[in-house]
Amino acid sequence: MTQRTRKKLIDALDRLIRGEPEHRELREKARIGKLKINYSTVEQEAVLSAGALRNHKDIKKVIKSRSMGLAVDQSPTAESELDLLQEQLKEQKKKTTQANKLKDKHFKQSKNHQKALQVQAAKHIRIVQRLMDMIPFEEREKAMDKVVTARPDNIIEGKFR
């Protein structure tokens, strides 16, 4: 069983390297130039389950070296694997920097919105206080009971006099 699996994996890797996969999805990717050689695609091409490579460390090494070699060949600027990895690292750092800037921007916006919400809630409480002051003292308690019984979840805690 292991020898048959090994043969399937090697044949699949060879087909992928040549750019002639038999798997329908991989053939479509190869046609548009987006075919990647990695563990998953080799397992797909070999028609094996995910994780079938876990017992074949030698084939994993070959896949890793071939995929890096192809990536270097396809890269317009990289001349070696090290150059490619450095480019990828620069891109990742750039993305991280952008993400941090965006995070800071949204954090500042949320703080501003929180302050605006506090101001609005304070205004609302002040308006409710003034309206309550307009109701005669004897009828205030009845009015509040009506509000609470109508919608018990509609209570905003505030500091009333």
Unreliable segments of 5+ consecutive residues = none
**Which strand-content bin applies to the residues?**
under 5%
The profile of the biggest β sheet is: none
The general outline is elongated
Helix content: over 70%
DSSP E strands, number: 0
Distance between the termini: 83 Å
| Order of secondary-structure elements | HHHHHH
Rounded to the nearest angstrom, the radius of gyration is 33 Å
Determine the mean pLDDT: 83
Structurally, the number of domains stands at: 2
Number of helices: 6
Structural class: mainly alpha
Region (Disordered): 92-113
Biased composition (Basic residues): 103-113
Organism: Litorilituus sediminis
Protein name: Bacterioferritin comigratory protein
Present the secondary structure layout.
Layout: H1 2-18, H2 24-32, H3 39-45, H4 57-74, H5 81-134, H6 137-150
Helix pairs in contact: 1-3, 1-4
Region (Disordered): 92-113
Biased composition (Basic residues): 103-113
Organism: Litorilituus sediminis
